[in-house]
What does this fold into?
Amino acid sequence: MPTMADVARSAGVSVATVSHVLNETRPVLPHTRQAVLDAIEELGYTPNTLARSLVTSRTRSIGLAVSAISNPYFTDILQGVEAAALEHGYSLLIADPHDDPEHERKVVQLLHERRVDGMIVAPSGAPGGLLAYLGRHAVPTVLLDRVIDGHAAPAPRFDQVCAENTGPTARLVTHLAALGHRRIGLVAGLPGLSTTDERITGYRQGLAAAGLAPDDDLVVSGNSESTGAERTVAVLMALAAPPTALVTANNAMTIGALRALQTHDRSVPDDIALCCFDDFAWADLFSPRLTAVAQPSREIGAEAVRVLLERLAAPDRPARTVRLPCTFVHRTSCGCREQPEDPEPSRKGTPS
It folds into this structure.
């Protein structure tokens, strides 16, 4: 197996110069750097990652804590994170916090103990322990999908990357109202999550824009899971005046809602119209095809990596929140005829 000394002899430089090229610890002239890289390629030299981390105090690894196993949306985000990390020469250590506050703090501590350079975390609905740990240890962190500013206080300020939630949800509601629906139900997500709060806000804004009075009986919590949505949609169907249209606030709850509607012999869209937040790979395989808000999942993951790398390069810069726009995907579960996809995002996202 070739050594660093072999690379140095082949490139005609010192071992120290090879080390500077590999570890980026000192500027090296372009032609010298290229000679070292050519020697590495020719000899098939593989750097010792552990030794490099001792020199640079960096492991070139990122810790990712998301509930990817239980949530297909986070699986798409994971792919974006992985691709962007690999592009920049970083590896991933992945843990699933299962949206459990105590477990998330433990897995983040384990990732930190493995000396990751920074973390990307989708916080739970009660992230106090997590935020305290990250703040106490000054871990470079990007919060993913769920924001905490003004949501979980007191808390240190972190970089955050997420999608727009309020405007796109309002658009689903106003679309249904424009079709003549006056009793529009919402299957909301897990209480405590900022995504849940923002989508409820969007739902209410949509009702107000359509001139419809809110009805608390039409808002139920599916706890962001299929079985929870199935139970709560059954409650909606048992109302004396059940909704004629339904908005589900994530993809797992959409599946549960469809199952409940089938159980109660409600046909979509003939008996009840349905729109969902979160598009997913098989949404257009349903009959009818699902009208949805599509989040830019992979782009969210890639953006989180870029923001984290910027934080590592400039630890003292102000924290920022980046919101990416969603797309309204107009299909037929709302009761409309087939339509081309909207080329414009439902709401423009701007860094703040």
In short: The first strand starts at residue 61 and ends at 65. The CA atoms of residues 248 and 276 lie 5 Å apart. Residues 297-313 form the longest helix (17 residues).
